Amino acid sequence: MASTKRHRLFIFIILGLLSAVGPFSIDMYLPGFDSIAASLHTTVAHIQLSLTSFFIGIASGQIVYGPLLDRFGRKIPLIVGLVIYIAASVGCALTNSADNLMIYRFIQALGSCGGMVASRAMVRDFFGPSESAKVFSLLMLVIGISPILAPTVGSFVIAHWNWHGIFIVLAVITACILAVVSFFLPESRGPNPEMSLMPKPITQSYWQVFKTRQFFTYAFAGGLASSGLYAYLAGSPYIMVSLYGLDEKQYGLVFAFIASALITASQLNSILLNKYSSEKIAKIALVTQSSIGLMLTFLCVTGLINLWLMIGLIFLFLGSQGFVFPNTSALALSPFSKLAGSASALMGSIQMGCGALSSALVSYLHNETTVPMAAVMAGCAVLSLFILLASSPKPAGSHPGRNHK
C-alpha cells in the first residue's frame, strides 16, 4: 500500500512539473516587459502581443496533440513537444526583433502543448473520473506556485544577467523535465493503431467530444473564467509598473501574493469536495468571481480604485478561479475514456483560445488606464456564469461506467 502511494505521488510530481511548463513560460518574462521593449526598440504594448501569440500557439497546438496522444500513446508526442519547446526557447533568447520574438513564442507554445495536454489526459488515465477533481486541485497547487516562483526568478535573472537569460533558464528547466519524463514516467495508455490520423476521423472524434453537452458547458465555462486570469496577466505589468510605479522586485512580490490566492483556494477546494459536488462549488465560485469583477470595473471607471484595493480585489477574483478550474476541468473530461486525449486537447484549446482573445483585447483597448484589464476580467467571468446557468447539464460523471468510446 505504501509503495503504491509513493508511486502515485511520484507520478503526480511529474505531471505537476509538466503542468508548470506553461505557467512558467507565461509568467517568468512578465517583469521584463519594459526591458525587452527597450532592448528591441519597441513599445510594451507590442511586447504584450508576444503573450498573445503564445496563447494562440497553445490554443491551436493542443488540437494537434490530442489525436497524437490517442494514436501513439502519451509519451512519444510528449517528448517531441518538449524538444520543440527547448529549441524555441533558445530562439527566443537569441532573437533581436520583437516580431521574431512573437514567432518563437508561438513555436514555444506549440511545444509546451504536449505537456499540458498529456498531463491532463494522464490524470484521467491514472486516477479515473472519481479522483480527477481532487487531483486537478493538487495540480492547481503546482500551477499556483509557478506564478509565485516564475516572476521572482525572472526578476532575479534580469537583475543579474538580462532578459535573454530568462529563456535560457526556461530551456534548461525543460531539458531537466524532459530527462525525467523520458526515463521515469510510465506510459499511461499505449498506442492505439485503430485511431486514424486522417482529417475526417479526427474531425469526427473532436465533434463527438464537442457535442457532448457536459463537455461543451464546462469546457467553455472554465475557459472563459480562465481567460479573466490571462487578461490580468496581459494588463498587470503596465498597471503595476508604469501606472503605480512598482519596480520589478515589488511587482514580483505583488504577483506572488495574488497567485497565493490560487493555491489557497485550490487546496480548500479539495476539502470542500468531501462535502459538496463539483457542480455546486463551480457555480458558487463563478457567482462570486463575477461580482468581484464587476466591482473592480466600477471602481476603475469611477476612479475610486487605488493600488491596495486593486490588489485585494484581484486576489479575491483569482481565488475564485482556484475553485472554478479544477471542478470544471474534471466535469468536462469525466464522460470520456478512450477519447481522453482528444477531450483534454479540445478543452485546453478552448481555454487558451479564450485566453488569447482576452489578452489581445486588453492590448487592443489599452488606453493607459486600469479600465481595459478590469472590464475584460469582469466580462469573462460574467459570460462564464451565463453559460453555466444557461446549460446546467446533468453530469455524466454521476453515472459510473458511462463513458464515450
Task: Please describe the topology of this protein.
Layout: H1 2-27, H2 33-39, H3 44-72, H4 75-94, H5 98-160, H6 164-184, H7 199-210, H8 213-243, H9 248-272, H10 278-302, H11 307-333, H12 340-364, H13 371-391
Domain Major facilitator superfamily (MFS) profile: 11-396
Membrane topology: Multi-pass membrane protein
GO molecular function: sodium:proton antiporter activity; xenobiotic transmembrane transporter activity
Detailed description of the structure:
This protein is mainly alpha-helical. The chain has a single domain (7-184, 194-395), classed as MFS general substrate transporter like domains (Growth Hormone, Chain: A). It is built from 13 helices and no strands. The chain has helices at residues 2-27, 33-39, 44-72, 75-94, 98-160, 164-184, 199-210, 213-243, 248-272, 278-302, 307-333, 340-364, 371-391. Helix 2 crosses helix 3 (44-72), helix 3 packs antiparallel against helix 4 and helix 3 (44-72) packs antiparallel against helix 12 (340-364).
Compact overview of the structure:
The protein is mainly α and 405 residues long.
